[in-house]
Predict the structure.
Amino acid sequence: MEHQELDNLIIDDRVRGVFRVNRRAFTDVAVLDYERREIFDRCWLYAGHESEISSPGDYVTRKVAGRRLLIVRSEIGEPKAFLNSCTHRGNVVCREKSGSARVFSCFYHAWTFNAQGELIGVPGQESYTPAFDKKELGLKEVPRFESYRGMMFVCFDAQVADLKTYLGEETREKLDYMIDFGGDEVEIVPGAQAYSMRANWKLLVENSIDVYHAMSTHNRYFRQYLPDIGVGNEGWVAPTAMTNQTRGGALGGGGHSMVEGPVRPTPLSVFAKEELAEIRWELDVKFGKERAHQIADYNRNLFIFPNLILVSLWRTVRTFYPISPGYMEVDAWGLLPKGESQELRQKRYENFLSFLGPAGFATPDDVAALEGCQSGFATNQELQWSDISRGMGREVPSSTDELQMRAFWRRWHALMRGKRGLTDCSDRAEGLQAAV
C-alpha cells in the first residue's frame, strides 16, 4: 500500500469543520496488514488484571494481537507474561484458560517449564549434545510487560515508552477515578464474555465512545425497560440529557479519549440506593469531597488506544481484535470492588446483564448496528466516505458530538503513516476555535 493511499484515507479539514474517513479503512486487507504492523505490534495492549493471578502459580491464558500468552504469578509472587509457545516445536504449552500450577508441560513432547518460565524437564535429554542448554530454552517473555493499578499491559515493541508515559496524566487520572469507585481494591469477577461480530474492529471503537446513537439504537432500554421496572428515565430522555450536561473529548495526544456525564438512573442506582449511599460516604472520608465527587457522580466511557474500553456505568472492561477486515473477536470482563456484600454484587451483576449482557438490551443492538455498517460498506466504490464531523464547530463539544472519535482516527492515521510522536487530537485550527 502506497503512502499516498494512506494519506488519502482521512479528510481532516479543521478550518471548514469537515472530517471524513474513507471506507477502505474498514474493508481493505492491506489496511489491516498496516494496522497489525504499526499499531497492534507497537502499542501497549491490555492483557489482564492482577486479581486474576492472585497467588503464586495462578495463571490465565490470553490471545493478544494474534499471539497466545501465558500470564502467571511466579513462585516469588511476581506477575510474568510469556509467549504461550513451546521452545521445542512451537506447540501451545498451556491449553487451559485459567488455573493454578507449579509446572507447565507441553503435551506434544512433554518439555516442562516452571512458573518462572525456566525449562526444567526434557525427556531423553541424554540424546542431545553438550551444546544443548536448557537455560537458553525457557519460555520467552513478551518484550514489554507492565502494570498500572493492577491492570496488566503488554507490548511487542521493546523500544516503546513506559506504560505510564503511554497512558499520559489525563488518562491515568480518569482511570484512577474508575478504579476507586468502590473505595477499595477491585477484582475481575466470574462471568467473562467472549463473542464475535462480522464488523471491522474500528467500528466498535467508534461505538464505544458514541453517545449519539444511544437513544435511537437502545430506545427499548431507556423508554420501555426502565419505566417498566420502576426506574425513572428522565435523566436519559430529557431534551438536554445527552448534550448540555455531558462532554467528550481527547485525553492528550496518544489517541485516548472519553465521554462523561452525570450519573443517571439505572436499576442499580434505584435498587441499591442505601448501599451506594454508604459507599459514597466512605469515599468522602477517604478521598475528600471534591475527589469523591469526580469518582462517584460521573459516568464515563474511557477509551485507551487502540482497543481498550472501560464503561463505568456497568463496570465493564472490553477489548477487541481484528481477525479479518470484516470480522472481530471481543472479550469483556466485570471489574468490581473486593469485599462488598454478596447482595450488592448480585445487584451489580443484574444491572450489567440487563444492558451489556449477551442477551441484554445493548449488546445485541450494537452487534446488529455494526454488522449493518459493515454490510453497507459493500457500496464503498460508489459511496466512499463516512462522516465524523459532528461538533467540529462547537466551542465545547458535548458527548453526542464526535471529537472523541476524531481523536482516535487522528492518532490512527498518524501511526499508520509511521509518525510515532504525540498527535494533535483536538479540533483546534486557524479559523475554527474548538476546544475539549
About this structure: Residues 290 and 348 are 25 Å apart (CA to CA).
